[in-house]
């Protein structure tokens, strides 16, 4: 299985968990020896929550990595009170 397919498979499996705690425990277990994979899955999770929940967008808006994701998902987006250069 390629790294991309593995990432997609694990992300979809994590989404099947009924709570955030279960998702975190699952990802901790399957990614224990691959912190880079865990980081990518975490970014996907944040991106999904921001794409589907406006409150999550506001919560993550001022984190640099989250701001980059938001700009990709919503072209022209800017955090309130900030101007992107």
Instruction: Indicate the structural class.
Output: mainly alpha
CA-based gyration radius = 14 Å
> Which stretches are poorly predicted, pLDDT < 50 over at least 5 residues?
none
- Principal-axes geometry comes out as globular
Q: In angstroms, what separates the terminal alpha carbons?
A: 40 Å
What letter string, H or E per element, gives the SSE order? HHHHH
Can you tell me the number of structural domains? Answer: 1
Number of helices: 5
Mean pLDDT: 75
Task: Tell me how many strands there are.
Answer: 0
Describe the fold and architecture.
This protein is mainly alpha-helical. The chain has one domain (3-73). Helix content is 69%, strand content 0%. It has helices at 3-15, 20-30, 35-52, 54-60, 64-73. The radius of gyration is 14 Å and the shape is globular. 8% of the residues are buried. The mean pLDDT is 75.
Structure summary:
With 85 residues, the protein is an all-alpha fold.
Question: Characteristics of this structure?
Answer:
85 residues; mainly alpha; 5 helices; globular
List the helices and strands and how they pair.
Layout (H helix, E strand, L loop, with lengths): L2 H13 L4 H11 L4 H18 L1 H7 L3 H10 L12
